[in-house]
Amino acid sequence: MSAFVGAMVGFERSLLPIITSSWGMAEAQSSLIMVATFGGSKAVANLFTGHLLTSISRKWTLVVGWCIAAAVPYLLLTMNAPWMAITANVALGISQGITWSATVMMKIDIAGKKLRGTAMGLNESAGYLAVGGASALAASFMDTKGDLRYILFATLIIVLLAIIIALFLLPNTQPWAELEARKEYENSTAVAKNIFVFASWENRSLRLLNIGGLVNNANDAIVWAVLPSLLLFHGESLTTVGILTGIHAGLWGVGQFFTGPLSNNGKIRNLLWWGLSIQGMALLFMSTATTLWLPYILLGLGTAMVYPTFLVGVSNLSHPSWRPKSLATYRFWRDMGYVIGALLGYLSLQLHAPSSAFIYIAILTLIASSMIRFSQLE
């Protein structure tokens, strides 16, 4: 299921210039609009998902998310105006927020505290391997066949399969969470009435994890929106763009098989600050529009170190009874990073220096790394 979720967004990562080619504006600007609308809609959807997971169950939340995803290929197949592409992107963001949050929550429910890191590593690995594979395959297919319709038909098949699996094969997982609450936590579940405020500001550790997640997705937004246009501007082919973005997402996926279990002991600070530091250095190298593989490898590995670890940290600090809303808050701030990254990218374009976006976000990433390094986070 996680791989299906990742594949839905993967095809778009390297094809944004194609989807927005008729907009009459610079490729990077149209890509930034798409990334910002995707990130904003996904972030808001995450907040609603926290409520859905506790009110209508994990299973039916997943089904709702996939039903919304069905609108994406339909809108792009019939697209005759920019608003249809933007609407499709909003639908993609909403469906991604709902479906990915549901798969995360269901695995956390089942795995329990001792194997939570392994579960998150498997979940995010499957998702981002699919992102990288779909990105590279879609770009290569467009370079050789030049027909977007077949890619969209493939996404429609994914949606139908996912709905069938969610309806008939997946269990509801709340009983596992209820068992964890009884066996591993005290009876009291007292916490601030407003979980969003508590997780966003009042709890220092959760606040720091939210900041780290936001910065992580902001640098992903730069890679997603600015990098393809920058490479194409320097004369690289769409296949090269797909391969390089695929390396990043693929290693992000594979790496989590190994980095996820490292956080099982709950000691997450070193994983986080090292991972963000590696990201920051890789982004500095990317500002030159290099086609060398090393920066993309480093960025993928750095992201693999932090991505499941943030989820584990938030889960460990949250009681099972309000964990869905705490995770929803983290995922809201994390995905707002796409909006922040898009704004940084837009600023760099206005300054006629798109490569400077990589420098800006590299500095922010290194600052976030230092904040975690010298924090009391365990």
Pairing-aware structural class of the strands and helices? Answer: mainly alpha
In CATH, the homologous superfamily goes by the name MFS general substrate transporter like domains
Radius of gyration: 19 Å
* Count of individual helical segments: 16
User: Do you know the CATH topology?
Assistant: Growth Hormone, Chain: A
Task: Give the overall pLDDT as a whole number.
Answer: 89
Number of domains: 1
Give a quick account of the main beta sheet: strands, pairing sense, barrel closure.
Answer: none
| Level-1 CATH class name | Mainly Alpha
Per the principal axes of the C-alpha atoms, what is the gross shape? globular
Task: Supply the CATH architecture.
Answer: Up-down Bundle
What's the helical proportion of residues? Answer: over 70%
Low-confidence stretches: none
Write the element-wise H/E pattern from the N-terminal end onward: HHHHHHHHHHHHHHHH
Describe this structure in words.
Helices cover 81% and strands 0% of the residues. With 378 residues, the chain is mainly α. It has a single domain (2-373), classed as Growth Hormone, Chain: A. The longest helix is centred in the first third of the chain and has 30 residues, at 82-111. The model has no long low-confidence stretch (mean pLDDT 89).
